[in-house]
Batch of 2 targets.
Target 1
Amino acid sequence: DTGVSQDPRHKITKRGQNVTFRCDPISEHNRLYWYRQTLGQGPEFLTYFQNEAQLEKSRLLSDRFSAERPKGSFSTLEIQRTEQGDSAMYLCASSMIFGQETQYFGPGTRLLVL
Amino acid sequence: AQSVAQPEDQVNVAEGNPLTVKCTYSVSGNPYLFWYVQYPNRGLQFLLKYITGDNLVKGSYGFEAEFNKSQTSFHLKKPSALVSDSALYFCAVRGGFQKLVFGTGTRLLVSP
């Protein structure tokens, strides 16, 4: 299967620790997105890459959050000094670059901050 | 700003009956609308999208959606529900820079 993959699938950490998540998009997709989903809510946009360029960041993405896509392939999302409010499902999606292309989502990384 | 509303938190339907999951939207300009389904502890699976063209869009697993510009709606439908259709359904609209703006979701429960 060549869908979007995310690692790890689950992460439990203590408040104040740093965590890093990885997303591998569908291989021919130029665009990569990060979303956050909390319980009972729809996903909320965090940030977006076209190739290696980060083109938009949501106000939700505080200075404790950083995302990279160094070679235009996989991406990492790092959260520094985690807080309990960071507990959520972090979803990655990818799409082609042309037109209104569909975003295909990975299985997500569920983060629990104790 | 682009937004969608899903007025029903939950929809209950008996297996074999038709189902409708409602979505209304608010956009400036042409709407690009999507439906996704989410099973427990899983990511989102794409069902269908409306970009332009026919108002009735057909998608995966027998689902279809009807785009109604005058009512600013994009309701998801299926002629005959299956128990396995029970899941969380999200309507979304494309916002700026290709990001998706999602509704709060509707839980569909199909009883045997």
Target 2
Amino acid sequence: DSGVTQTPKHLITATGQRVTLRCSPRSGDLSVYWYQQSLDQGLQFLIQYYNGEERAKGNILERFSAQQFPDLHSELNLSSLELGDSALYFCASSVGPMYEQYFGPGTRLTVT
Amino acid sequence: AQKVTQAQTEISVVEKEDVTLDCVYETRDTTYYLFWYKQPPSGELVFLIRRNSFDEQNEISGRYSWNFQKSTSSFNFTITASQVVDSAVYFCALSEADNAGNMLTFGGGTRLMVKP
């Protein structure tokens, strides 16, 4: 158990819908990262927050947004969902920059 | 731009064999970090090792060992006396210190199948 929690574990929704994925980092970790894992794209970095501030952005679509709250938990919002958004979404946390990232169990999103 | 290549997409071995997973990386930074993660069939990503670019010493942890060679931009992972429980997808990843964030760039992964 990495200490990073993610909810829900599975999510099935229809095209055009909006969903929110939640992540709680390990106790003491200030950095939160979101990654997407799909068969065709592999593991890709989406976005990072550090102590509530956005730190870096990867190949995150404009339909996707995230935030980190004062208690350090984070949410990833996915809107206007398309079939191609079906993937495993991971949250990771670390104590700070350049330290190892510990991953949550992931949320498997299926868009039908 | 940073890039990680794991040329072996799938490896199959018989239990007790030694196996080496290759990882080649590209970066323009002089300060960077390399990682290995394991993704068992259950799906979670498990951290195995982190190595910075200034430390080329090989590392051994039980049956696992890592060989870092800056001259060939490689960070290979060897499992000695493999076991069925080692069956998983293994990812090599790179993080550059000069990035505003320290996101991980992953290789495509190597699926290791250990047969009894």
